[in-house]
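Hello,

Our lab assistant flagged a job as stuck in the queue for most of the afternoon. It eventually completed. Since we weren't sure the result was trustworthy after the delay, we are filing this so someone can double-check. Below is the sequence as submitted and the structure that was eventually returned. Let us know if re-running is recommended.
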Amino acid sequence: MKILWVKNDFLHPTDRGGQIRSLETLKRLHENHEIHYVAYEDPNQPEGLRRAGEYSTRAYAVNRPVPKRGSAAFFGQLALNLFSDLPAAVGRFRTAAMREQIQTLLSEMKFDSIVCDFLAVSANIPDLSRAVLFQHNVETVIWRRHAEHAADPLRKAYFGSQAARMFQVERAACRKAAHVIAVSEKDAEQMKEMFGVERLSAVPTGVDVEYFQRPPGAWPEKHDLVFVGAMDWLPNVDGARFFMREVLPLIRQKRPECSVVLAGRSPDAEVMSLASGDPLITVTGTVPDIRPYLWESKVSIVPLRIGGGTRLKIYEAMAAGVPVVSTRVGAEGLSVEDGTNILLADAAGAFAESCLGLLDNAERARAQADSAQQMVAARFSWGRIAAAFEDILRQAA
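-- returned structure --
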């Protein structure tokens, strides 16, 4: 097949779950198919375009960088968006340059399949009825959860407005697309119920088991707990806030020396302030390789209260042989079994007790980690995931 793949960014450096999912799928599709990849170029990340040949036959860089989150231009976009029908998460990626590039390619070449990777770029595709919409999340659910957990009335009102706009745009896009690919059966069920989508399939999240498997030799346990994720993504910031303010104090009542590492790119000011003055809390920022932080930690935590899609970080921790404690939101959509290969807890007290139960019982932690590692190795290799994705593209075409 000749496939036109449209996304908002290039896939290196690969430091977000959605990038990992797209990259691993595309690398395997590229082995047998012609991939034409279109994305915005970030001049601060030249690695992105330079390495696009690892997963595409030809890459097309649209020369309008989207303003960095937190910059003055970013807040200017948010202000202008107040007068738009599009939610900011979609409107900020809609540009004439992207639409023109896609239209030029469609007029010059015949594609067997078009993939719109994330809802964010859907407004740039001239005829979404020809495209497969790859939905890594149910975006409306994320924004509704932002409103639910907002810290003050102003934020609650803003997030509520964004959620309402997102619902209208997401429903229209899902209904119009030739086919929708969800990343879990739960997301698929939500989209059917919320948007009335019929042309819909679920392709689960995968993991590179060999890559994350702990190598032979000693890996000293430097940290009690590790929280992996992009630390400028709002659900992760909220999760860090919840854990540091409500859960960690309970853990330290029984384990005063409990150490935590927050491992992920671009920690925002709030994340840094949460760790300020506490020598037992480490904030790494961007790291070249996340695996050592997993291998050197006793427990991986996923304290999310907001989010959608599926968290690759859970399967990666499992593949690395690290036991996981998560909220139900953090693990939703994943094929996990509470009490066997993961511990699930939502309230601060229950989350703290789950962490303590693993920290204080090495045999229990090892049994849970072994069960999880065996499960992901048997069921969630990227080869299987990409084959399922390929079948859907053929059927939709």
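-- support follow-up --
The delay was a queue issue, not a problem with the job. The result is valid. The first strand starts at residue 2 and ends at 6. Residues 153-176 form the longest helix (24 residues).
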